[in-house]
């Protein structure tokens, strides 16, 4: 295992200390328990947006804390759900009197711990609602999760709901909007190589030199099928077709096309994937009016990519274009 | 070799087609010869900033074309210098009557081809000057380059000179400012793993499971020494000490601390490196008033990192904070 770490058990804490040192102008970090909040939290009259999940998916979620995105993020240990106490404290820290919305990826541990935290918060009289992200078309039920897993759409959900919360949307507004986004986005991913959880010290699965895994989840869970290595164009087609057929997307629609690197994939390769994905979308009659290309939701040093397609309407397009000012995503200045 | 590509010989062209499809709102791409320019180029009365170099270092340089950074970038094939005709055409395309400045990393091929292009442009009556970047403290002369190689400081140079050019600094102003930046910044990198040039199909060098290379250049050239794997804190110390001692930096100075991933290194690890680097800078008496942490100048899928330290003055700090709007770096909106 080759990693730039110290003791594996200190990795999450030390990375948070690094974020604190780097971004004290934007975020405040709690080390006991782990969470990050906007420096200006709580904001009176604004719904507090809280997300979280296992570490190892950076920049998600702590990198998206700031104006126009999340109010708080709760990182668990690597690929391990945050505990209810983290979620409770973070939610309290960003409660400005307008309630709190949790954005939860559909993984069993995340769902359970966010639900427990929400119950504890409601018992204290806090208005808490939840939006679930379950955009992965690859498999219906996996070893880790009942129903579809939450993957790339999570980044878009955090950006779009973040913009709406900034405009003082209420908890019911945000829950409704989150439901629309959930119903409008689909993703699928693939891996060329596995990744290694530091505390395990060994790759999460094995792939031969001429193999790839299609339909992986962000923890390197098994996907839809294992296949022989293929060209970027063929891989892109294998991801786009299940996505397009699933919603289904319809000719004439505006969409956001998000091509994401899983960690170790060079940006030059992501642009090759984007090129083909945009061609396929266009042949399908879709208008790609917004896009995002880069390394935004990862599985440590896994090589591979995911594609997310989100149907847009005028409201979502405007929310996408709204400013954001977070460690990992800065937005809104247009020349 | 596991890569998301089609035919290796089409990689650069297809990635440029992907950039064109994705960023037509910001840049225009020429495919014959290869270059990218700002969509609004040429800008009357503004010096045209042109850089370039081998591909495989993305987002550098094409990702930095846009308002507040470069006017044009010329990508060569992977790890191969751009040809003089690319540089000549790109320079002509961004000449708004105020002359052109070339930002050139100190690699023999880049130096030669930019110099040839500059001579051809001068023969046509265009005012062209050059700023060289040679910030790598690791080795004085390598297999590829006489003198020090240009590495991480290039990204900062493009941001800072880009901001000054936006304010209508003249060619002599920019050359002087580039000289100051060159004299004020130092870098050093390391690799945990090699990378594979697609057309070669094999890793550029071999490292045992318990080895790392200290002082690599961005093409995976040999570094200062090979060493046993060490903790992130120890690696950071091995990079920071040569940097600090070289300029030398002096207690009380303001600095920009840039921790860069070489391609495959997870962001969570870069924050662990940043944590230690900031501690060392602070113990040394430096005030880290600006920073940049992420994957900005790469060697394909190499795992490893580089650290760049730049001495700041008031002018450089202001230029750093100025807006930028490029595919890979968007800046300027502050909540």
Q: Could you describe the 3D structure shown?
A:
Two copies of one chain form a homodimer. The first copy, chain A, has eight helices and 14 strands. Chain A is an alpha/beta fold and 335 residues long. Chain A has two domains: 8-184, 3-Layer(aba) Sandwich (Rossmann fold), CATH 3.40.50; 185-314, Dihydroxyacetone kinase, domain 2 (Hypothetical Protein Tm841, Chain: A,domain 3), CATH 3.30.1180. In chain A, the strands form three sheets. Chain A has a six-stranded mixed sheet, sandwiched between helices. A six-stranded mixed sheet of chain A has the order 9-8-7-12-10-11. A two-stranded antiparallel sheet of chain A has the order 13-14. In chain A, β13 (324-325) and β14 (330-331) form a beta hairpin. Chain A is globular, with a radius of gyration of 19 Å. The model of chain A has no long low-confidence stretch (mean pLDDT 96). Chains A and B meet through α1, α6, α7, β11 and β13 of A and α1, α6, α7, β11 and β13 of B.
Short description:
Chain A is an alpha/beta fold and 335 residues long. Chain A has helices spanning 11-23, 84-93, 108-123, 153-166, 171-184, 232-246, 267-283, 314-321, and strands at residues 27-31, 34-38, 48-55, 72-78, 100-105, 128-133, 185-191, 211-214, 225-228, 254-261, 287-294, 304-311, 324-325, 330-331.
């Amino acid at each position: 295992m080759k990693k730039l770490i110290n003791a594996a058990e200190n990795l999450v804490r030390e990375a948070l200390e690094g974020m604190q040192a780097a971004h004290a102008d934007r975020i405040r970090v709690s080390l006991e328990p782990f969470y990050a909040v906007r420096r200006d939290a709580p904001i009176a009259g604004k719904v507090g947006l809280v997300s979280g999940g296992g570490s190892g998916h950076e920049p998600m979620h702590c990198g998206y804390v700031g104006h126009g995105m999340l109010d708080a993020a709760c990182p668990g240990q690597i690929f391990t759900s945050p505990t209810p106490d983290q979620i409770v404290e973070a939610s309290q820290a960003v409660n400005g009197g307008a309630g709190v919305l949790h954005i939860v990826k559909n993984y069993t541990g995340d769902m359970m711990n966010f639900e427990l935290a929400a119950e504890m918060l409601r018992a204290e009289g806090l208005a808490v609602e939840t939006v679930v992200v379950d955009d992965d078309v690859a498999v219906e039920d996996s070893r880790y999760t009942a129903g579809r897993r939450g993957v790339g759409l999570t980044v878009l959900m955090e950006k779009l709901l973040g913009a709406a919360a900034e405009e003082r949307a209420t908890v019911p507004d945000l829950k409704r909007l989150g439901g629309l986004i959930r119903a409008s986005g689909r993703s699928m991913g693939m891996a060329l190589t596995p990744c290694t959880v530091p505390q395990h010290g060994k790759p999460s699965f094995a792939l031969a030199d001429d193999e790839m895994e299609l339909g992986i989840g962000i923890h390197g869970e098994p996907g839809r099928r294992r296949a022989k290595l293929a060209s970027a164009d063929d891989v892109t087609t294998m991801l786009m077709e299940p996505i397009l057929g699933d919603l289904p997307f319809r000719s004439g629609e505006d969409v956001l096309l998000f091509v994401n690197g899983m960690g170790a994939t060079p940006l030059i390769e992501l642009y090759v994937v984007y090129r083909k994905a945009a061609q396929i979308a266009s042949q399908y009659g879709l208008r790609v009016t917004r896009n995002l290309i880069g390394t935004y939701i990862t599985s440590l040093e896994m090589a591979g990519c995911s594609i997310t397609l989100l149907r847009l309407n005028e409201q979502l397009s405007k929310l996408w274009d709204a400013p954001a000012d977070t460690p990992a995503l800065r937005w809104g200045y247009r020349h």
